């Protein structure tokens, strides 16, 4: 082995803003994914969180030293970072701060390549969790509901496993949008069947199945089909409409037959959101909310001790989490981002991100994963480039990105 050649190669490595971003994204994605698994009993979740401080520093360095800045962009970026720090300290949730950094530092980032990384690494990670739990390396937490066993397959909770699968389906639809056919849709149906047997995550399974017609219409719209273009032209409106309905329904929740019926459909999430309103209210920069869920080993024990009663309290809806945990500023900003991404997608007649924003909005009504990078990388698209990408198999690796 020629040591001098290796040394020269190391010296010749060119550090770029894109390289820093992709390195940070991959590192944070893997760390975030591990935190959603029962590997947290092997590797301390607190230790993983500490690594995110380094990632935050890298992204800030990219913004100020690698991105082209004008006085206006410098002031806006600085304001966003400052607000992010305030929200982080108010909520004790650094993930919101990291997500904000990933959004504002995504300029000149090939978004299509980024989602390809997300898709491939995400599939590997999910399969790795299933194998690890099957071999007994980590726990496959089992929850029994109505006599049916629900497996988490190495993830903290069965619905979280199904949510990972749902977001990977969205990523697949994004990357291979032009090539989607009946075989892809059939694979989604088979995946939904597998999740039904293993996790019984009803709402996530419905979301996966609903993705098929939403994406199908978007694909036909991008091909110029008139009726599909008309239907897809309204996609960008779905996020603000569902956010408004969700918050309003939770705030005015009562024990009327209509509300009880709606609450049953969303598995009790409406009543819990109303309780959150009463207990914590709404603030500008967010609240420190004490939640007690059933995820992980401790949550599993609580489930078998007290069932759905006891100390269980968790705000599942991402829309409600934005409003109550992260505050009004974050709520308005995130809904605006989702709306802008959807509208830009419609105006460029591509429609793929508009369709994904529809499914993301539906997920936000029932799931808490909107600002969790291990699930949702789609808000990064706001400032990124190469949104539509190229419908061919390209070899995107870190070497070609000049890390």
UniProtKB/TrEMBL annotation:
Keywords: Membrane, Transmembrane, Transmembrane helix. The keyword Endoplasmic reticulum does not apply. It comes from the Bacteria. The chain crosses the membrane at residues 20-36, 48-67, 79-105, 117-143, 155-177, 189-218, 230-253, 319-341, 353-371. This is Polymerase.
């Amino acid at each position: 082995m020629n040591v001098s050649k290796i040394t020269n190669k190391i010296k010749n490595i060119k550090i770029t803003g894109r390289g820093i971003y992709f390195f940070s994204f991959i590192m944070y994605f893997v760390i975030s994914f591990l935190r959603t698994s029962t590997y947290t009993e092997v590797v301390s979740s607190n230790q993983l969180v500490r690594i995110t401080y380094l990632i935050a520093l890298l992204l800030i360095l990219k913004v100020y030293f690698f991105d082209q800045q004008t006085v206006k962009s410098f002031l806006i970026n600085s304001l966003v970072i400052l607000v992010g720090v305030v929200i982080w300290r108010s909520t004790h949730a650094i993930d919101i701060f990291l997500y904000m950094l990933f959004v504002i530092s995504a300029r000149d980032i090939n978004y299509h390549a980024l989602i390809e990384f997300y898709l491939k690494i995400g599939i590997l990670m999910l399969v790795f969790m299933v194998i690890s739990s099957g071999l007994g390396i980590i726990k496959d937490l089992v929850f029994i509901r109505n006599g049916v066993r629900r497996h988490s397959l190495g993830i903290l909770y069965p619905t979280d496993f199904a949510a990972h699968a749902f977001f990977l389906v969205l990523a697949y639809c994004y990357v291979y949008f032009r090539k989607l056919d009946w075989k892809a849709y059939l694979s989604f149906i088979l995946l939904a069947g597998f999740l039904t047997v293993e996790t019984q995550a009803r709402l996530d399974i419905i979301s996966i199945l609903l993705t098929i017609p939403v994406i199908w219409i978007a694909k036909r719209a991008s091909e110029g089909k008139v009726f599909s273009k008309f239907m897809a032209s309204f996609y960008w409106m779905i996020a603000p409409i569902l956010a408004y309905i969700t918050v309003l329904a939770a705030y005015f929740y009562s024990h009327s037959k209509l509300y009880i019926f709606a609450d049953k459909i969303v598995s009790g999430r409406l009543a819990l959101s109303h309780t959150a309103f009463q207990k914590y209210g709404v603030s500008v920069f967010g609240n420190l909310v004490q939640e007690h869920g059933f995820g992980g080993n401790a949550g599993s024990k609580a489930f078998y001790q007290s069932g759905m009663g006891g100390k269980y309290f968790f705000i599942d809806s991402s829309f409600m989490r934005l409003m109550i945990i992260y505050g009004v500023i974050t709520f308005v900003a995130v809904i605006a981002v989702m709306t802008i991404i959807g509208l830009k997608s419609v105006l460029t007649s591509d429609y793929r991100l508009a369709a994904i924003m529809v499914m993301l909005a539906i997920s936000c009504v029932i799931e808490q994963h909107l600002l969790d990078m291990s699930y949702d990388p789609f808000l990064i698209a706001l400032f990124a480039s190469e949104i539509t990408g190229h419908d061919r198999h390209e070899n995107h690796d870190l070497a070609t990105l000049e890390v």
